[in-house]
Amino acid sequence: MYSFLHQLHSRSQLETSEESVKFLLNRWDALPEFVNILSAFTMEDGPSNLDRSGFYAHTKTSVNEEPVVEICCLLKYVELNCRNGAIPWSVRQMGVYQQFNITSRQGRCILIQPSLDLQRRMREEFDENENYTDYISYWFSFQLLSVSTLTGNWLSYIKFLEKKIADIQNSLRFTKLQVEQFGNVTFQDLQSLHHFSDLLHRAAHALKSNIKVLNSLLEESRDIRLQDSPDLAKKYESFHKILKSSAREQTFLQNYAELVCGRAERISLMLRDAMALRDSDIMKRLSRLTLSEGNAMHKLTEKTIREARTVKTITLVTLIYLPASFTSVGLSISFCLHAFVSTPVS
Fold it and tell me: Phi/psi zone of residue 182: left (φ > 0), alpha (ψ -120 to 50 degrees), beta?
């Protein structure tokens, strides 16, 4: 029996009522730690729950004294987000709860926000296996499906971020400090680098979480094998090889993400240095321009001072000669008047 619970998006709540979930958990007598998995899919206004991880396993006894295995975990995967943003990929998480009776070979499973790839693979398996009861009679059949769909799109996602970082690096390589031209790096490029670096850090963390879950599942499978039929030894060995292979591939992807993240951080440091050097060059040019303007103002001041001295000299000369000029003009006028008056009329 499979039950699917979905979210509208990673920050929304599950598309089912709280009462329905409680009823299902009580009816199945589910593992109490499964609540920790469910809490990773609650509605959040702050930071996303995508950075959380968890794996819980327990073996209990049923009413008929039969061993029942319970496993719940969080797995991270990458899918297209169908948004018109700069980054078409998103890291998402899937919650899994499985309850399986080893004796009766019957189980139940709850899938929270399963990937599209996993849903497609499940439909294909059930279509290909008409008598799918034989398929689900092994608890690890579903685990094989979920594990096999983990790696898809991770490589494309990391390569996409690496391409974005390489574009900024190329722009930085052709940047000239003295000339403002196309290709010069900007503060927006620095912000983009920090964003890409954060996404790569989170990707590496998600891959590391998957690796821990796979290793925990491997250890739990070895314990369950001791309680299961010896006839399934080869199937268990095959399952364990797939788990190891998937964990190894996730490790390679984690190393790749960390490598690209380190490259982004180094480019970010180089970008900050280039921006600082360019700002320093601009300040030097402004300083030279200010100094040139200062020299021009100094010359203008000296010219003004010289003109002021000339005006002062002219003023002094005027003060000396102006009274004498007035006196001579006055005497000349008086003499002319006296001569005119004293001259007899014939």
Answer: beta
